[in-house]
Amino acid sequence: MPRKSKHSGPKYANGNYKSYQKAYDATPLQIRKRSERNKENKRRGTYGNGDGQDNPHKKSGGFAKQTQSASKNRSYNGHGKRSRYSA
Fold first, then answer.
1. Which of 3, 12, 17, 73 could be cross-linked to 7 through a Cys-Cys bond (beta carbons 3.0 to 4.6 Å apart)?
2. Where are the alpha helices (DSSP H) in 1-87?
3. How do residues 1-12 score in pLDDT, each as one tens digit?
């Protein structure tokens, strides 16, 4: 018998509840991380200008020196076209 979830309402395509994700994004840790990413983006002059550039992360937790395209940056951690996670 499937477990009853305390969350209800709309879901994302991957099956996660939107209400759960919204609550997670509002945690102090996530707010701090988002503010750090935004501050770095503004410092480099790529914030809000629509250039499609991201700040790649290093394993140490900091940011790399060069910006790169968002699609290339997001493909590194196993979420690319040929990853084992893709359907």
1. 17
2. 18-25, 28-44, 70-74
3. 677 777 778 888
